[in-house]
Each structure stands twice: as structure tokens, then as C-alpha cells.
Automatic annotation (TrEMBL):
Annotated function: Plays an important role in the de novo pathway of purine nucleotide biosynthesis. Catalyzes the first committed step in the biosynthesis of AMP from IMP.
Gene Ontology molecular function, alphabetical: adenylosuccinate synthase activity; GTP binding; magnesium ion binding
Keywords from the UniProt entry: Cytoplasm, GTP-binding, Ligase, Magnesium, Metal-binding, Nucleotide-binding, Purine biosynthesis
Top EC class of this enzyme: ligase
Names of the cofactor(s): Mg(2+)
Subunit and interaction comment: Homodimer.
InterPro entries (UniProt xref): Adenylosuccin_syn_GTP-bd, Adenylosuccin_syn_Lys_AS, Adenylosuccinate_synth_dom1, Adenylosuccinate_synth_dom2, Adenylosuccinate_synth_dom3, Adenylosuccinate_synthetase, P-loop_NTPase
Residues that hold substrate according to the record: T298, V299, T300, G301, R302, K303, R304
Catalytically driven reaction(s): IMP + L-aspartate + GTP = N(6)-(1,2-dicarboxyethyl)-AMP + GDP + phosphate + 2 H(+)
Main location: cytoplasm
Protein name: Adenylosuccinate synthetase
GO cellular component entries: cytoplasm
Amino acid sequence: MANVVVVGSQWGDEGKGKIVDWLSEQADVIVRFQGGHNAGHTLVIDGVSYKLSLLPSGVVRGKLSVIGNGVVLDPHAFVAEVEKLKAQGVVVTPENLRIAENVTLILSLHRELDALRENSNSGTKIGTTKRGIGPAYEDKVGRRAIRLMDLKNLTTLKGKVERLLAHHNALRRGLGVEEVSADTIYEELTSVADQVLPFMDIVWKLLDEKRKEGKRILFEGAQGALLDIDHGTYPFVTSSNTVAGQASTGCGLGPNAINYVLGITKAYTTRVGEGPFPTEQDNEVGNFLGTRGHEFGTVTGRKRRCGWFDAVLVRQTVSTSGISGIALTKLDVLDGLEEIKICVGYELDGERIDYLPASQGAQERVKPIYETLPGWKESTEGARSWAELPAQAVKYVRHVEELIGAPVALLSTSPERDDTILVQNPFQD
């Protein structure tokens, strides 16, 4: 019986929500292992859309869902998301959701610092969501973070807040903004403590017990592997590790708990925010893909940049995340194109290479090398078997498999969860 990690194999927005929801029916526990409320999943169930930013997708299905220690949690955003789901008929309680006691909290001063940096004219614009994720992770590794368990002991909380502010108020003075008082942050935290603390648990212990009981565990991340702080297009990345290896670190289970890594892969490429994008099509093709694919961010509503499928990048992610198989999504968006291009290599300073270099300057200089395939006129939308797909669409999928070095385990042909062609069930690896 397999435990499965789901990762985005590109820059995020690959359609993880639907696939995680599809898999969650077979899982007993769903774990969110990194990121914050800066990324979203959209689930479509019986025609109803559920937009999740922080909560694991399993809560909509009533499965035990877990927010691991690798996540940074904004307690006020958490409470708001729980209330939003309640209005849609989904009740989130400690019976179906647990939060790691050692999860780092996002505070208002983190959001303010995030916005101050992003809006400044100096330095590099990253394209953050300004929700405080990066500054919260900075405090975590700086060993001054406020963690969920700290809200349980109010006698020591003030001292921890003052220690945190010794750092942040020095930053604020340098940025020319008003300092924050310890009482303000203390009140911010105590006002929400009673609503969040009931969900607190020793997550590593809970998951170890579930694993020993033979329960199926599904690990879900946010963003995509190319936004990984180490392996992504640095500095235009998120502030956490997004590759599959983080699933272990981000919840406290060892790597031997992972049996299958499913890479969610869009049939073309998109990116939100700043940074290199070798196959971007800032033209009619890009507009076609963006319009047909409804390419707007779940959390921010930002328009996504669109381009051809980049096999070099996905092949690299297959390696860095140890991907066992992919779920290919949004194939139907390519319907009607006369021809379809796939990036199969790069040219860098006159030489051909088969990987994305780590250097920011080199990433900006790479030029895509394309293969051109014939498109198809027939619709693939809603197909639930290979036999329903046009021959050229099947050829496209098979060529993608060959180029990235990983098989297609699932093929998604619309946002509806049942419009899925199953080749291999990751839970039955």
C-alpha cells in the first residue's frame, strides 16, 4: 500500500487541486507540507468550486487533513478560510483537521515587511503575493519565530514577542516606518488563539501512528518545483523547498514513508510573477492558451504568463523530485491548434545544453530549441479513455513521456474530477 507525494513539476498552477481531490477519495490522511496561504487549489465538485489557500484539499471530502510543520500559518487567514468553507457547507473541526504544534505563525508585521520590500524601488522584484510568507520563513530559520505552541503559554509569549520585535523594529526603523509595540502583537495573537489551538497536535507522532496502522497518506505541496528555494529559478522563487523531499521534512516522517511521487504537469507552461520563462509566448499563442486555459491565479487573480511545453524543465524536475509518474493536465486547452511546439533543449552562448542552469544571468540568456508537432482539430475535453482522444493528441502525450523520462499515470481533460484517464493508480504502485 503506497503513500503518495503530489508535487507541481513546473512553476505551480498545474491543476493540483483536482488531482489531489481525485486521489483523496482513496487516501485516509492528507498532509500539507510546505508553503502558506500564498498558493491555492481550486476543487470543482458537483459543479461547486471550492477555493483553498491554506487548508489541505481533503477537508472538503471529510478526510483527516493535516497542516505540517513545514507550513507557515497565518492564524487569522486560517480562521477566515474555515468560515468561508462553513458558508459552503463544509465544516472544519479538530476531528478532520490537525495543525502541527511547531508550525511557524505569520503575523501582520510579516505582511507589512513583505509589501514594503516588494513595493520598494531598490533590489529585485520577486512577484510575491505580499502575504508575509517569506519574512515568516526568515524568522523561522533566524530562530525567533512565534510558533503555534507558544499561544498555549501566555506567560512566556510576551517575552518571545519582544525578542522577535528586537529584530523587526530595527528593520522598520531602517525602512522609515513606525515601530510595532509588543502589546499590539500580543493582542493580535491572543485574539485568535482560542480559535486555532483546538486544532493543535503532535503531527509527527500522529502520522507515525497512522502509517503503522496501514493508512494511506497523501502529501500535497503548494507552488511548483521550479519555485523551490534551492532548485528553482532563484531569486524568483518561493521561500520554502517545494520539491518532493520536503514532504518528509515538512511533517516529520522519514523518506521511507514515501512510495510514489506524482508530478502534476500542465500540457503547456505557465508562470505567475517575475523571473525567467524560456518558452513564454507574449503573442497570439500565449493569449490563446491563457484565454482557453482560464489562466488567472486562484489566490491573487493575477494573469499568468503562458508558453509552450518545456520538456527540459520538466525532465529536470523528474530528477530533483524523484517523480515516479506524471498527471498531465489541461490537454484540452491545446485543441484546435494547427501545430504545437515542444522545447527539447536550450542554446546558451552558442552551445546546446539539456538543463536549466542555476545562474540567474544564464537563465535569462537561454534560448529554447523547439520540435514542432501537428495539432488536432477534434475536442479532447471530457475524454475518459485513450480511445476518445484524437490520434495526434495521443502522439503528443507519448512524445512528452519520452522527452521527460517519466510515464503518464493520469491524464486530465477538464476541471471535472471524473474527466480523467487513469493509466496507473499511484496508491497501487
